[in-house]
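[Meeting: bench + compute handoff]

Bench side (C.D.) handed over the final construct sequence. Compute side (W.E.) agreed to return the predicted structure before the next meeting so the bench team could plan truncations. Sequence as handed over:
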Amino acid sequence: MKERPLRLALIFAAISFLASLIMIPYQLQIIPLPEAAPVHPAVLFASSAIQTALITLLLSYLGIRLSSSVGSQLNLWKGWAYRQKHEGFAKRTVILAIFGGIIVSLAISSLDRLFFVPSIPQLAQLQAPVSSRWLGLTTIFYGGIVEELLLRLGLMTLFVWLFYRLFGKKTSSWMFIVAILLTSVLFGLGHLPATIQAFGELTSLLVIRAILLNSIGGIVFGWLYWKKGLEYAMIAHMTGDLMLHAILS
């Protein structure tokens, strides 16, 4: 079957829509809706899921179109979408991705507990609902699939392609490294609104915490996307979220 980027992008958008819906119970536990909500919760969540799907459609389509130019690997996903022969998952790389996700989760948890919690008194006062440990399982699809589509396939591929176009149409390792760092920092910055909502303010330590803790995973997942393929970055991200939201929480 001929490769059609829009076909794969539509598949990614549909998966993103479902992943957003699956995560709704967890969101309700973490951020309860006000009693006098201006719209019905079903409308609010449906519109949010549709918005996520549309953004995923745009960025994934862009990433698919640009990936061949910069050498990004989408072999497994393309094989499924276009009914092409593919080698399937490499067992050693799956193990590497799982190990990477575990290391990321342990690094984030340890850094937070050993440094940020003693330094930021408000953190010790935050207590997650008891049931959120199990509801946290619903986050692995959004984090592992949607965020990887947006950040790695979309933004990281775009950054590498821009460097590729600006610097002689030849990819170099530094382009991927800079793209990994940029997307990781942007992901951390994207958590600042949630930080403000949780603490009511932004301090220098809270900003550092949001950027640093969220960048750790981005570096590992970005390296896996670069060297091994998007599916392995997804596996690592899902493993990390499983550890953080269901096991270590």
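W.E. noted at the follow-up: Residues 52 and 161 are 24 Å apart (CA to CA). C.D. will use this when planning the next construct.
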